[in-house]
């Protein structure tokens, strides 16, 4: 009989990382918002 545990995730640790210090280069510029035409695809049957 199987237990309710998943052996694949038993050895994982949940953690987080905080980076402190000066940057070595400028951050990439934030991309703008995509236009509706770039996002919406209309597929119609003929």
Secondary-structure blueprint:
Blueprint (H helix, E strand, L loop, with lengths): L35 H4 L7
Percent in helix: under 10%
The separation of the N and C termini measures: 55 Å
Counting DSSP H or I runs of 4 or more residues, the number of helices is 1
What portion of the residues fall into strands of 2 or more residues? under 5%
Largest pleated sheet? none
Coarse shape: flat
Instruction: List unreliable stretches of 5+ residues.
Output: none
Mean pLDDT across the residues is 79
Structural class: little secondary structure
| Rounded radius of gyration (Å) | 23 Å
Number of strands: 0
* H/E series: H
Report on the structure:
- The longest helix has 4 residues.
- The model has no long low-confidence stretch (mean pLDDT 79).
- Helices cover 9% and strands 0% of the residues.
- It has 46 residues and is low in regular secondary structure.
- The N and C termini lie far apart (55 Å).
- The protein has 1 helix and no strands.
Q: Characteristics of this structure?
A:
single chain; 46 residues; little secondary structure; 9% helix
Brief sketch in words of this structure:
With 46 residues, the protein is largely without helices or strands. The protein has one helix spanning 36-39.
């Amino acid at each position: 009989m199987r237990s309710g545990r998943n052996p694949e995730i038993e050895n994982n640790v949940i953690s987080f990382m905080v980076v402190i210090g000066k940057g070595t280069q400028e951050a990439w510029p934030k991309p703008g918002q995509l236009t509706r035409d770039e996002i919406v695809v209309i597929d119609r049957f003929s």
